[in-house]
Amino acid sequence: MVNNRLNVKVENSTVKGGDYVIGVVEVIIGEAVPASKDITVEVELSGREKTTHAETVVHQPPPHTTTHVASASSLPPSTVGARPSGVAITTTTSTPPPHTHTQVLKDKNSFVHQSMQLHLPAPLSPGLYSLPFQFQMPGSIPPTCKGKNWDVSFKVKAKTSHRSFVSFGHSSAKNTQRLFSAGSIPGEIETHLKPFEVSNDKSFMFHSGRLFMTSRLDKGVLLQKNALPYTLIVDNKTSKEVDHFEVHLHRHIEIKTKHHVTHDNQIISTFKSKHPLKAQHKEEIKETLPISSDIIPTFKSKLIKTTYEVQFLLVPSGLHFSLETKLPLIVPPPFYFQGPPLSSSGPTPGLGGVHHSGSSSALPPSSFPPPPAGYDPHRSGPEVYPPGPAGGYYPPGPGAMYPPGPGAMYPPGPGGYGAPPPGTAASVAAGGVPPYGAGAPPGAPIPAGWISVFDASGVPCYMHVATNCISYTLPQ
Question: Is 128 helix (H, G, I), strand (E, B) or coil?
């Protein structure tokens, strides 16, 4: 039985285009790992779309021809009483039934694929080890969605092939955290932030005059999350009464699979009003079409394209005809209605030393109960941090910065808030404990291409700028 395992945690599982995906891989050590081999964990961010297309293939086998050859002596006498001379050749042709089978075609496309390697130096005692990671989403990504023959998904996966994690018959140990993508704001939205209007008219047999309708949207963009206001101007210049009007929101999805293109069209929302209009009468109608909150945003990718259209119908009484108009509509992603970002808009301060300017889910230190004396969030034991008045580490509050800077809050200790955390160069110089696993004297040079940073738990570590690899020991 394998007692060592991985667990992926992300700061915010809902992201949009351009967001940073920030999290940690928890390395749970149930059995001590000897010093024979360090642990390498590969973390991968991926996003992809998949489509399928099933078609019936009919195969018609070629006709089957049979030739029979017989001697003339074996044939019955001819009608004139004489036997024919030579041989007789007869040919029969049969057509086998056609064969049919279903052929399933598959296609896929990747939006994002990023990876980084994290390292834990052996030996390791039992406990919980947190390895931080961060990725950045591309500026334009589709939303997470799924249909009958199409699927868009995003995930973060961590895996290791270290033998202490792998069970019999497997080559690696894995853990996956799925992400929900809210998508990106469509590029054409700016051109639709204006009034959209269309008119149509029609005459009806045996009824003099014409029926006129103008449909109007204040904006060609869904600006309210659950409602679409619209205006109808109806001018009935016929001798027939208009029985009612209807409004339908159509969603059109174009799906590409190899060389095939299929369509998935649905009516997402509908409204029917019993609103009779008398003959020779003009009226302006203002109504609202209710919209479902889980509607898929407008987007276009390599394999999938989603568009929306609003259909307006006027139905005269007793006739099998109607007057129709259509207007395009862009449905933006959910965060378009909300204002504040769904997740952090900048890299976490502990990775690369960049100040985090986005929102933070961390609470002020006073919101956390005091940890036990000597507690180290990077390991489960008290071996690293020396006991202090409050005994350990508190997560930084909103606006905190790493490394030490204005407004930074560090764990309470002999120096109180704002004092350098145990393991930093300043702490080591003052007689403190060196960072976990580093074993490097104060002021030791860092190899070119590496920088000294802090992980999400505030523990000092080293990051390779070109590859984003994290090491808790001084690189050689």
Answer: strand
